[in-house]
Amino acid sequence: MDKKSIAVVAFALFSLFFGAGNLILPPQLGFKAGELWWLVALGFCLSAVLIPILGIVAHSKLQGTMFNFAEKVSPTFSLVYCYIVYAISIALPSPRTASVTHEMAIQPVSDTSSLITSLVYFALVFVFVINRSKILDIIGKFLTPAILFVLLLVLGIATVTLDLSFGPSTFDSPFSYAILEGYQTFDAIGAVVVGGVIIISINLKHKQADYEAKKRLIAKAGILAGLGLFLIYAGLMFTGALFQDNFEADISRTALLRGISLATLGNVAHGFLTVLVSLACFTTAVGIVTGTADFIKGRFGESQKAYTATAILGCVLGVLMGQFNVGYIIAVALPALMFIYPITIVLILLNAIPVKYTSRKVFRWVVLITILFSVPDFLGSIGYGDAIAPFTSWIPLKNFHMGWVVPAMVVFIIGNFGKRK
């Protein structure tokens, strides 16, 4: 594969993962991390960059759909997993895009209620989902380069004009907190849900290339895309850390991003960034609702009625959840992510590593143990942490809300050792 093909795929992967949600999380992480912004950047990028890129690598091996990711556990489990992921997608990240748009673009200039914003926003989403307009593809090709250009301006101006000193960190466990914050990007789920689109595009464009050539293309493009994401995230955290003394400690994520862009770019450029972010939010919402509707349509014999009903449901949920601010939606999303994200990460890793280490038995036991040890973290996230503490205090990494990691690793090693023996 030539360098141009690698660059094209790398940019496509970058665009797939980089959306409006990814913009609002890193600045506040750096803002709170202060002098430890670099450690937070490493933790965040572990779950928001490395795992999603490995998800694409897994797709390149499977050459299938989201259903194939969990098929080795069982077809029934895979189907349930797909339903849960799509339900979470239309109930949380999709409405969050409307809230980001309201807080970034509408609230600062108008007293229009969030209900009006959400109604107009998701009415337009529904129109685009039903008509499947190609305008979004054109907008998408313009959005990411434009946002990147403006962000680079923000980073450059902040670095040149501000004193390069940092305050103390406000995190007790910055690395683990950043890993969990990386869950909120939903990028691991995004890799599983829509990563297959990239693989299909590669297969269509490079029909003569063999399996290994395509894998090398994905690997090199993935490294480039991952490096780009890491640099942007780290840059945003670095910038947030520089502004630690410029804003109130309890400033919201969207208000911080807005404040940083105003301080570095001024009103005109800030307005341009706001428009770009709003468009990026919109394309994300359309993509989520369309993907969910396509999945339900396929499950009901390619029924157009099922597609339309799902689109309506997705938009209604968007309007209802869009009444809450971004911080609240992120807080509500945490319990769901504490349960589904570990399963998604494990499925990605099992599909990415060599097949000789991932028999059906290994798949089933590792996923089962992951589910079992994710339950305490899930219960802790909804307020039952103290009640179950006497029974779960022995679990490694439990205090960092990652109690599933060590048990899953142990079962994976035992499963492979027993198979060899």
Automatic annotation (TrEMBL):
<feature type="transmembrane region" description="Helical">
    <location>
        <begin position="7"/>
        <end position="25"/>
    </location>
</feature>
<feature type="transmembrane region" description="Helical">
    <location>
        <begin position="271"/>
        <end position="293"/>
    </location>
</feature>
<keyword id="KW-1133">Transmembrane helix</keyword>
<feature type="transmembrane region" description="Helical">
    <location>
        <begin position="328"/>
        <end position="350"/>
    </location>
</feature>
<dbReference type="GO" id="GO:0015818">
    <property type="term" value="P:isoleucine transport"/>
</dbReference>
<dbReference type="InterPro" id="IPR004685">
    <property type="entry name" value="Brnchd-chn_aa_trnsp_Livcs"/>
</dbReference>
<dbReference type="GO" id="GO:0015188">
    <property type="term" value="F:L-isoleucine transmembrane transporter activity"/>
</dbReference>
<comment type="similarity">
    <text>Belongs to the branched chain amino acid transporter family.</text>
</comment>
<keyword id="KW-0813">Transport</keyword>
<keyword id="KW-0812">Transmembrane</keyword>
<feature type="transmembrane region" description="Helical">
    <location>
        <begin position="182"/>
        <end position="202"/>
    </location>
</feature>
<feature type="transmembrane region" description="Helical">
    <location>
        <begin position="400"/>
        <end position="418"/>
    </location>
</feature>
<keyword id="KW-1003">Cell membrane</keyword>
<feature type="transmembrane region" description="Helical">
    <location>
        <begin position="69"/>
        <end position="92"/>
    </location>
</feature>
<dbReference type="GO" id="GO:0015190">
    <property type="term" value="F:L-leucine transmembrane transporter activity"/>
</dbReference>
<dbReference type="GO" id="GO:0015820">
    <property type="term" value="P:L-leucine transport"/>
</dbReference>
<feature type="transmembrane region" description="Helical">
    <location>
        <begin position="305"/>
        <end position="322"/>
    </location>
</feature>
<feature type="transmembrane region" description="Helical">
    <location>
        <begin position="142"/>
        <end position="162"/>
    </location>
</feature>
<keyword id="KW-0029">Amino-acid transport</keyword>
<protein>
    <submittedName>
        <fullName>LIVCS family branched-chain amino acid:cation transporter</fullName>
    </submittedName>
</protein>
<feature type="transmembrane region" description="Helical">
    <location>
        <begin position="362"/>
        <end position="380"/>
    </location>
</feature>
<dbReference type="Pfam" id="PF05525">
    <property type="entry name" value="Branch_AA_trans"/>
</dbReference>
<dbReference type="GO" id="GO:0005304">
    <property type="term" value="F:L-valine transmembrane transporter activity"/>
</dbReference>
<feature type="transmembrane region" description="Helical">
    <location>
        <begin position="37"/>
        <end position="57"/>
    </location>
</feature>
<feature type="transmembrane region" description="Helical">
    <location>
        <begin position="112"/>
        <end position="130"/>
    </location>
</feature>
<feature type="transmembrane region" description="Helical">
    <location>
        <begin position="223"/>
        <end position="243"/>
    </location>
</feature>
<dbReference type="GO" id="GO:0005886">
    <property type="term" value="C:plasma membrane"/>
</dbReference>
<keyword id="KW-0472">Membrane</keyword>
